[in-house]
Amino acid sequence: MELDLAFIWAGLIAFAVMAYVILDGFDLGIGILFPFAGEHEDRDLMMNSVAPVWDGNETWLILGGGGLFAVFPLAYSIVMPALYMPIILMLLALAFRGVSFEYRWRTKKGRWIWDAAFFGGSLIATLMQGIALGALVQGIEIEGRAYAGGWWDWLTPFSVLTGLALVVGYALLGACWLVFKTSGALQLRMQRYAFVLGIATLALIGAVSLWTPFLDPVYFSRWFNLPGALWSAVVPVLMLGLVVLFFRGLSRGHDATPFLAALGFFVVSFIGIGISFYPTIVPHDLTIAEAAAPDESLAFALVGAVILIPIILVYTAYAYWVFRGKIDPEEGYH
Q1: What is d(CA 64, CA 55) in angstroms, rounded to the nearest whole number?
Q2: Residue of 288, 276, 138, 162 whose CA lies nearest to 219
Q3: 213 secondary structure, DSSP code
Q4: Above 60 in pLDDT, residue 145?
Q5: What is the pLDDT, as a whole number, of residue 64?
Q6: DSSP letter string over 179-203?
Q7: What is the pLDDT of residues 8-42, one digit of tens each?
Q8: Per-residue pLDDT tens for 151-209?
């Protein structure tokens, strides 16, 4: 049986993007929650909870972007001009955020500056990610295998809504991560935040989901006509189960259940996006097969991916295993 290399690579890139969202999402969410932490000691504890893993989480962003460039060059050449501004702003914010992560430990008088930079970098990076996603979902104008839209096409009411939804969603992940990793007063505060952010996240997911099918008749058809409706019906069922787990876990004081359920919100939402997109890679005109590089290039790159991705998974899992358990306030990143 001949392998569909383009489909395999589309799955690998989707996996890399999803891994980035669920791993770096709570990291960015902690930055978004920084102004609401209270005491300096709480901010230190929040930052220490992600210090061993925060930079490794962004490996998946590089893998997703680099993979798109290598194996779907046509899609890359269309998406980048369309989303140039939000992507550049996101990368600058991530870089500035990384600098603030290191510098805030080296000063006391100027720590408030780097706290603000950590918050601002996290907020802008998250907002731009959400806006870029919304712009991609609403469709990119293509003419003659090239981007044919305007400079500001990425900025629309729908993309702003998706940006806001991602900011609230990442803040939810951050709060749930801190419920999982901390104890005492900070944990109790984050439990309260998680309850409110959970309701807000679900409301925004609902708003985006209701709006999406009306962006284009193709989406409406895939969601509500057979056989696509059989797949789309699974999404709300899974989401309902996760909602029950999330609020039950919070109400019973569980540490891990709210965090895992919140991650599930993102995974299920990602599945919904996949149902809307497939078989296109750039809605609504460019399919996975049309955008793919030659099979020889796909096969060559796949050899490297088969070696590299398991290594990344192993060292990521090892890092989380080594630093498992609650954060000790007496120890941390210095």
Answers
A1: 15
A2: 276
A3: G
A4: yes
A5: 82
A6: HHH--HHHHHHHHHHHHHHHHHHHH
A7: 888 888 898 898 888 888 999 999 998 888 777 77
A8: 888 999 999 999 999 999 999 999 999 999 888 888 899 999 999 999 999 999 999 98
Q: Side chain identity at 332, as an amino acid letter?
A: G
In the chain, what are the domain boundaries?
A: 5-322
Rg of the chain on CA atoms, in Å: 20
Please give the Cα distance from 330 to 313 (Å, whole number).
30
Retrieve residue 44's tokens. 């230190």
Residue 161 buriedness (CB in 10 A; 0-12 / 13-18 / 19+) = middle
The residues with which 180 forms a beta bridge, in sequence order, are none
**DSSP H or E stretch at residue 134:** helix 111-138
- Which pLDDT score, from 0 to 100, does residue 331 have? 60
Cis? peptide before 40, omega within 30° of 0: no
273-303: per-residue pLDDT in tens?
888 788 778 877 788 888 888 888 888 888 8
Query: Measured in Å, how far apart are the chain's first and last C-alpha atoms?
Result: 55
Structure confidence by residue, pLDDT tens digits, 122-142? 999 999 999 999 998 888 888
Q: For the CA atoms of 47, 15, 200, 182, what is the dihedral angle to 10 degrees?
A: -30
Question: Confidence class of residue 1 from pLDDT cuts 50, 70 and 90?
Answer: very low
Report the distance separating Cα 261 and Cα 263, nearest Å: 5
Query: What residues contact 239, with CB distance under 8 A and at least 6 apart?
Result: 205, 265, 268
Helical pair 40-48 and 111-138, crossing angle rounded to 10 deg: 50
CB atoms within 10 A of CB 319: 14
CATH number of 5-322: 1.20.1630
On whether the CB atoms of residues 286 and 75 are closer than 8 A, the answer is yes
Entry field: residues in the chain? 334
Q: Which tokens in the block code for residue 157?
A: 């009411």
Give the whole-angstrom CA distance, residue 151 versus residue 131.
14
